[in-house]
Amino acid sequence: MKNVFKGYYNIEKSVLEQLWKDDKTIFVFDTNVLLNLYGYAKQTREDFFNILDAVNEKLWIPYHVGLEYQRRRLSIIRNEKVVFNDIEANLEKIQKVFKGDFEKLALKRRFPRLFENTEKLEKEINKSISNYKKSVQHWDSEQPCVRSHDSIRDKLNVFFDQKVGERPENQQWLDDLYKDGAERYKKKIPPGFKDSGKANNDDDTHFFNDGLYYERQYGDLILWRQLINKAKSESIENVIFITDDAKEDWWYKISSNGKKTIGPLSELQSEIYRESNIKNFHMYSTSMFLEDGKSNLAVDVSESSIEDASTPHIIESPAGLTPKQISAIADSYRSPSIDTEKLRELAERASKISNIDNERLREIAETASRINTFDNEKYKDIIERANKSISFDSERIREIYESQKRIQKQAEDYEAFTKFNKWYLKNKDKDEEN
Fold it and tell me: What is the pTM of this model?
């Protein structure tokens, strides 16, 4: 039965250990794995490169992975640098407490002794902040910036020299893939259907490179097709794919005392076995790759590196939201909750008034009558947790974004109704006379 339903079986640990040493194995990397290197600690990067060095002759990346890496590299470096700017801004907020909030208390005039203690506290905090800034500067200097020499890219250039797949043969090949991809996504055939929302982002739905037109939502499918084409080579029997894409169009997950990742989706495994002649297909995240590399190759890898790699470092915004926009949404949820019951009450009043000739007010009344009660505090919590997260689930972010837009619309209607209510109270008597 195993041979018939091979896609449902993961590779046994003893077999996997042999694959690491098999000359007919290739290790294929996703774009996110390469880009995550810019967010890792120096030790994590060194351990990762040590593993690559140990399997150097077996490395390969699809053309589309290399292309996406080159396109996104600078924006990832910029985003990593933003962290240090945010640290500086937060430290300034702490210091401004003494120059603003404490000065308003007029402690020097009202409580002189307490004022002296406050001054001592300020000096101690400023001293601690000064020492902390020195450590921040150290770590900041370890991170590349957009204009500095990129030693990470230098290493990748060496490791993947002559180990990059061929570009798409022509535009027709891509166009045919897009048509096929549209049908696959409708049927939820992996990979990539979780990226279909990228088509809704007007700012970056597509790009041109080397005379070819690319649609971003089909990026995973492009690299998958290129990977399968590579797997058709007679010299390849085993494919190990490393990706930090945790979405469920790559991995089979099940809820059992928490979300558990079982392995690659059976549909993916079945397709690559069907379309090529390979014997084994396996997938790793970077942290799992480091962990198994350590045990199977006897390469020294720090536990801190495995832990570091288990945390995604790429700030994704496939729903079209930048980190600043996420923060702006979070700020909007910090406003007081909208009183939906008040809106309903005003809607009922509006419906009873016969002499309204303002179409906008009538439209608002109808909108208010359809508003469902919602828990604004719940959305505050969701958006603030998303704002603190380093990597985002694109569907969840789109859901939050759409919720925010609906609430913003309700807030506008509420403001309009407040004005309307004032008008209503002034004209109430007149209306009753009529």
Answer: 0.69
